Amino acid sequence: MQKIRSGTLAALLLGSLFTPVLSHAAPADSAAIRDAALKDDVAWDFTEGLTTEVGPRPAGTPLEARAREWAVAKLKALGFSNVRAEPYTMPVWLRGRDEAKILSPFPQNLVLSALGNSGSTPDKGIEGEVVYFPTLADLEAAPAASVKGKIAFVSHDMTATQDGSSYGYFGAARRQGPSIASSKGAIAILIRSIGTDHHRLPHTGVQMWADGVTPIPAAALSVPDAEQLARVIGRGQPVKLHLTLTSKMLKDQPSGNVIAEIPGSDPAAGVVVAACHLDSWDQGTGAIDDATGCGIAAAAALQVAKAGQPRRTIRVLMAGAEEVGGDGARAYFKAHGTERHALAIESDFGADRVWRVDFKLPQGHDALATSISATLAPLGIGASKQEAGGGADIAPLVKAGVPVIDLQQDGTRYFELHHTPDDTLDKVDPAQLRQNVAAWAVTLNLVANAQESMGIK
Fold it and tell me: What is this structure's pTM?
């Protein structure tokens, strides 16, 4: 794919963006916007720039701060209005050394990654006997005496699905497993990575300790290493492990959201929020999670702006600290929750093609949903009867009753890359990225210009 240098791209867009936005021209028809978006280079340029010039962006760290500075400058260069960072503070977990080795009966190293908010071992590590649970349910059912003083190891059978639905169920091993193991007296917990690949690359991710539970060291083994450990245990001999997971927690560290807008002609009509998250885990460069999402949101908003000033303001929200629990989403709602929001939409599931659209609109908005569905159909996108639910970056808005549309991306390969060192730019398919931009652009255009009274005050 031909790539345009950032300066050239900015100059082209500055010339093409400002004039239509200020002209109050009637919005172009959906076919024209769709066709223009299918030639879009902005999303790729944004993704390439963020992953190359910043790289990993762990929440609450100086790298995330660099990402905010980079995004503010980029969005201003692209011609957005009211571009700013909105700061807040948060506690921050920092990774240290992640090492494990089987001491007996078959000495060998294992590849693993500490989970977010993991407790820390001493610098010299800990040693313990491993007790194996094929599923999280097996750990839950185990007597505390069988776990106390041991290293719990939990596996699962997650498989790939197009809609990513397996993540919710099998991800409980990561989200709740550490607290369950700690409550039963385990000295540490290992889980099979919540992923569908067979690469020796562990999947990290956050877990939150239940109230009253003492944090213990918690880590994810790469899928091949989890299978290896299960085979070793299957030999029937006691398995002893040495584990080193050093980490620390810092209080009141700076984070923040980045906001940029395409101003609407009717302030009373409300705001359409197009969301993504700017932070990433520390292992890869956060290309699919979620630099592409931010590129898609920005590029789609610009396509609407080039067609003429929309009725409603389109507000791009690049949230901070999504990966560690949604601090940015809560900070946005605290700052803006009383404003009228007409709709919220989020991209945070990679950049493979959109294949389905889900709606949760106010009663009486069937015609708008039908119009959006018809406009998306030429892109190979079908309308479902499932209710849209949004994602972490817009969760407080959705909970408050703001209408939401989900443009569902193909997640078949998403959990091969999710939260691993393999989340890098080369995994992004430019053609599928453009299809995302086209789907977003026509949807934002119809919602931002809809005459219906949408949203809540």
Answer: 0.92
